[in-house]
Specification:
One of its GO terms (biological process) is formation of cytoplasmic translation initiation complex. By secondary structure, the chain is mainly alpha-helical. The chain is 57% helix and 4% strand. A three-stranded antiparallel β-sheet has the order 1-3-2. The chain starts with a helix and ends with a helix. The mean pLDDT is 89.
């Protein structure tokens, strides 16, 4: 997982050279990295380090700042939870005023608190609350102008929930799982079958296959103390009396 985070298999040689080479902070390359971001959005790929490079270039060159690019980077990082990608991206956002350089009002001050709230819900595994907030009328702007453009966004959120379920449950009711995934009925059944999990038709309980995270194994710790060592301990304790 760490190697894929550092160098995703979908990253081209050109982007690899930009991200890892001396041109990482060359402002003339920002257009290439921005195009790569939009490729990620269309193709359901993700490259955190390349996106962080864009934010770093914006830090060094405020005139390059593009709020829509920043928002799209944050949306992609949102579904990397529980990895720290979202917070890494937020840490590179400048406090300086950039709105004066834009032809239109900067949407980031409005969108950023919303994305932070969504990230908090995902990170704390409050998936039903996430879907409730995400589908609310207050977030219509986010859905209609941003996440609608991100291919597979809702499935990426579901993947976050599935990672948490895999690590926590061996069995879970279909109703509860459906609330985590914002799915029900045939759509939920199809999703579970796609995962290779099974649903008990009589109890509506979903069985989660065993994995290292959801299996509790007893651990026996044995310590071997040799007689000479025990003698020294006893002798030392006697000198304290």
């Amino acid at each position: 997982m760490a190697s894929e985070w550092l160098s995703p298999p979908t990253r081209s040689e050109l982007i690899e050279n930009l991200v890892s080479g001396v041109d990482r902070y060359n402002p003339s390359n920002v257009g290439i990295l921005e195009d790569y971001l939009y490729h990620q959005i269309r193709s359901e790929e993700y490259d955190c380090l390349a996106n962080l490079a864009i934010l770093k270039l914006y830090q060094f060159n405020p005139d390059l700042y593009n709020p829509d690019v920043v928002i799209n980077i944050l949306i992609k990082a949102l579904t990397a939870s529980p990895l720290p990608d979202f917070n890494l991206c937020v840490s590179l956002l400048d406090d300086r005023t950039t709105a004066s350089q834009l032809d239109e009002p900067d949407p980031l001050p409005t969108i950023l608190p919303i994305l932070k709230g969504l990230h908090s819900l995902l990170f704390r595994c409050r998936f039903p609350s996430f879907w409730e907030v995400y589908q609310s009328a207050e977030l219509e702007l986010l859905r209609d102008n941003y996440t609608v453009e991100v291919a597979g966004f809702e499935d990426a959120v579901r993947a976050v929930a599935i990672r948490a379920v895999r690590a926590t449950f061996t069995r879970i009711s279909s109703e509860r799982l459906g609330s985590y995934l914002n799915l029900s009925g045939p759509a939920l059944t199809a999703y579970v079958q796609k995962l290779g999990w099974s649903i008990d038709a009589s109890t509506s309980v979903v069985s989660v296959p065993p994995n290292p995270d959801n299996q509790i194994e007893a651990t026996v710790v044995q310590e071997s103390v040799k007689l000479p060592q025990l003698t020294k301990v006893i002798a030392h304790s006697m000198t304290k009396v």
